[in-house]
């Protein structure tokens, strides 16, 4: 049983299904732990690079798992997985993978962007997924783990998707900082915002993006 760090443990806690696909599986530890703990019955590891693909094969040898060399969702068929995870990449890469084959994204998606989680939240609103849960794991950084569930109330041609997680919140702030975190307002979350506010205020010059982020932080704390 491989050791999972706090980040991947928090991801694993969000997963319980029959067949789970992990895109960008690399070392393969997440699927190995999910199979060993009985949280999933079958795993599909997808890697687009040779060495991480070989690492996943070695870790998952003898397990109920397929290890595939493919670019993102090109590696699975529609309906083949009940749930997927994409962890440890930037928000741009995660969204690119999801949007390349929208009909292959299962009803449940656990996404852990290292940067720009707002792009992932915006993908979900465009694609009619609700943000069911949002957790923080501490490690090298403060990681956000997002669990999305496909909305049952919005057919494919539905124009206006309503995710109740955003109810009563400033939409821009919620996309940037996380609607569940804004509702919960944990002391850890507020402390992190105050630290970021102090850091951004200390900079001699701010990019447009940082200026917007500082303005949003100051609106919510
Ligand atoms: C930083 S590692 C993260 C590994 C693991 N998911 C984790 O969170 O510890 C990202 C992995 O995703 C793989 N990757 C990046 N883009 C991919 C794509 N389009 N399809 C499949 N794998 C991809 C990379 O080769 C790399 O092994």
Automatic annotation (TrEMBL):
Q: Which domain of life is it from?
A: Bacteria
Q: Does the keyword Coiled coil apply?
A: no
* A biological process term (GO) from this entry: methylation
The alphabetized UniProt keywords are: Methyltransferase, Transferase
Pfam hit, one: Methyltransf_18
Keyword set includes Protein biosynthesis? no
Q: Which GO terms describe its molecular function?
A: methyltransferase activity
Q: Which PANTHER family match?
A: TRNA (ADENINE(22)-N(1))-METHYLTRANSFERASE
Q: What is this protein called?
A: Class I SAM-dependent methyltransferase
Protein species of origin = Aporhodopirellula aestuarii
Task: State the taxonomy lineage.
Answer: Bacteria, Pseudomonadati, Planctomycetota, Planctomycetia, Pirellulales
């Amino acid at each position: 049983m491989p050791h999972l760090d706090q980040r991947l443990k928090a991801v694993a806690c969000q997963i319980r299904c029959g067949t789970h696909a992990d895109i960008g599986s690399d070392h393969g530890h997440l699927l190995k732990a999910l199979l060993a703990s009985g949280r999933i019955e079958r795993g599909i590891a997808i890697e687009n690079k040779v060495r991480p693909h070989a690492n996943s094969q070695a870790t998952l040898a003898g397990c109920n798992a397929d290890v595939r060399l493919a670019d993102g969702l090109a590696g699975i068929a529609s309906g083949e997985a009940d749930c997927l995870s994409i962890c440890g990449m930037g928000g741009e890469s995660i969204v690119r993978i999801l949007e390349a084959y929208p009909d292959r994204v299962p009803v449940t998606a656990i996404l852990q962007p290292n940067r720009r989680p707002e792009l992932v939240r915006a993908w979900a609103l465009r694609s009619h997924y609700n943000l069911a849960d949002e957790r923080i794991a501490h490690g090298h950084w403060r990681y956000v783990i997002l669990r999305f569930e496909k909305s049952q109330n919005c057919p494919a041609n539905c124009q206006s998707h309503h995710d109740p997680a955003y109810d009563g919140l400033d939409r821009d702030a919620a996309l940037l900082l996380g609607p569940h975190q804004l509702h919960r307002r944990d002391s850890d979350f507020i402390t992190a915002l105050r630290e970021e506010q102090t850091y951004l205020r200390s900079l001699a010059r701010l990019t447009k993006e940082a200026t917007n982020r500082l303005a949003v932080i100051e609106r919510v704390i």
